[in-house]
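Take the subject:
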Amino acid sequence: MTSPIPTIVNLDFARLELFEDYLISTIHEGVVFNLEHLEKFYQIFDSHYCNKPFGYISNRKFDYTVDPTCYLMEYQYPKLVGISILCHSESTFNTAQFEKTFYKRPFEVFYKIENCKKWIYGHISTFEKEKAGL
């Protein structure tokens, strides 16, 4: 089970909460999230999730824009089992549903953090079973 105490990483454009099996990112208001930002995330993924499956939870607390070309980099991290989006409004839900069309790996949208975590753990379990040949 994941430790309830995350490692916090504050970047100039986001706050990351790194848990054992997943991370929660909260991008700051008004940011245009692009490939440069994604590269900074990848550096953190490399150091914290080295060679283990993990999930990504995007906390859509603030309004920001994601450059859709970021979703073309999806195969960079095969151990990233999926992205779940935590929405706080109908508009963020609808935006996330649109973004889902660009991402070809597991991607789901929720209104509750518990559902995000449950979904991530389900994909980690599936990943580990497939790795074990089950």
Remarks:
- The chain has one domain: 7-131.
- The chain has a mean pLDDT of 90.
